[in-house]
Design brief:
Distance between the termini: 30 Å
Order of helices and strands: EEEHEEEEEEEEEEEHEEEEEEEEEEE
Number of domains: 2
Shape: globular
Helix content: under 10%
Number of helices: 2
Radius of gyration: 18 Å
Strand content: over 45%
């Protein structure tokens, strides 16, 4: 069964002066070591050392505030997702009070990409605000890719942001060959998990195992937005009989209405290799 984690119910632990963490996903609550997910909060100027072992990679996503990876002088802001290569070590320093940072780590990465040790050992930040916005063929939902092999150099994971305006829904489907989670950024919506409704709101996490049926709809009064990450990134999507298959159309703009950083053609979700 999928795992639902209510962010508001997770204990917040101070691990350094000015640094707290909440363990959202770990083997303790999922029974899986595909991905570990922590939500960290910082006061201005506080520092946390990031250290991955030689077999692990990860990624960082600022939710609020900003900061810098001091050893590389890489600025992190809410419109970016930063890939940490295998064995990365560095320090994050918060530039503002109440800076909130999602930290994801994937242990034993070679099981998901046998060539991952050959990928460039540098930080890579994707500015998703300049990535192409894709629109659903059937309604007003939109998608923005945040992590793909083209963007990061590895198929060990894939990430995207999905936006559900009021009244929109996704058809029932499941994924084969990967586990994945949704972290709700804004609004509220309902997941149907093997037909059973489960309400989700900002700060909640839904963890789906391989081949688990799910769908989403937004019957609220504001946009329902979540990020979704798959480990590994390459998997098969299977649609329920009679479902409108999710296909995505280019809009030729980014989320700010500007020309995007690249072009992505029409495609069906799950048939998006090379993006």
């Amino acid at each position: 069964m999928p795992i639902v984690v209510r962010g508001s119910e997770i204990e917040c632990i101070e691990i350094e002066k000015g640094v707290t963490t909440q363990s959202l996903l770990s083997p303790k609550n999922t029974g899986s070591d595909h991905v570990l997910l922590n939500l960290m909060e910082f006061t201005k100027g506080s520092i946390y050392k990031l250290s991955l072992d030689e077999g692990s990679f990860g990624w960082l996503q600022i939710l609020e505030g900003s900061g810098v990876l001091t050893n590389y002088e890489v600025e992190l802001e809410p419109h970016g997702v930063t890939y940490m290569p295998v064995g990365y070590e560095g320090e994050f320093r918060a530039n503002e009070d109440c800076t909130r940072l999602l930290v994801a780590i994937v242990p034993n990465a070679r099981r998901f990409d046998s060539q991952i040790n050959n990928t460039p050992s540098i930080l890579q930040t994707t500015d998703w605000s300049n990535e192409p916005v894709l629109k659903s063929e059937h309604d007003e939902r939109t998608r923005i890719y945040m992590a793909t092999r083209t963007l990061t150099g590895t198929e060990a994971y894939r990430g995207e942001m999905i936006r559900y305006p009021e009244g929109t829904e996704a058809p029932e489907h499941h994924h084969e060959g990967a586990e994945h989670f949704q972290y709700v950024l804004k609004g509220s919506g309902t997941a149907l998990l093997a037909g059973a409704p489960c309400d989700l709101s900002a700060g909640d996490v839904l963890y789906n195992f391989d081949k688990e049926s799910h769908s989403f709809y937004n019957n609220g009064s504001e946009e329902f937005i979540f990020v979704e990450f798959f480990v590994p990134g390459s998997c098969k999507t299977v649609w329920a009989p009679g479902a409108n298959v999710c296909a995505w159309l280019p809009t030729n703009v980014d989320i700010m209405g500007r020309p995007p950083s690249r072009d992505i053609a029409y495609h069906v979700h799950g048939e998006d290799k090379g993006i």
